[in-house]
Amino acid sequence: MPWVFDKGAEFLGTEYGEEKNYSEETARAIDGEVKAIVQSSYQRVEELLHKNRPVLDILASELEEKEVLSGEEVKSIIEKPQT
Question: For FRET with 34, which of 27, 51, 58, 77 sits at 20 to 30 Å CA-CA?
């Protein structure tokens, strides 16, 4: 349950204003793991965007021209072999 209004704000399982039941060392370890996951995911997204830039440019051009593309049009652009 992402938000609970009757007993205070709760977001993603963390209730704010309540005492934590773990050490600062554990908190730092969690923060480090979260940071590593976010950085790794960010790098992967950058790689995928760079790798797929030609297709994204074609999609952008088609959208500028037509303003709307159907799912089939997008699929045909994505699946078309790039030269």
Answer: 51
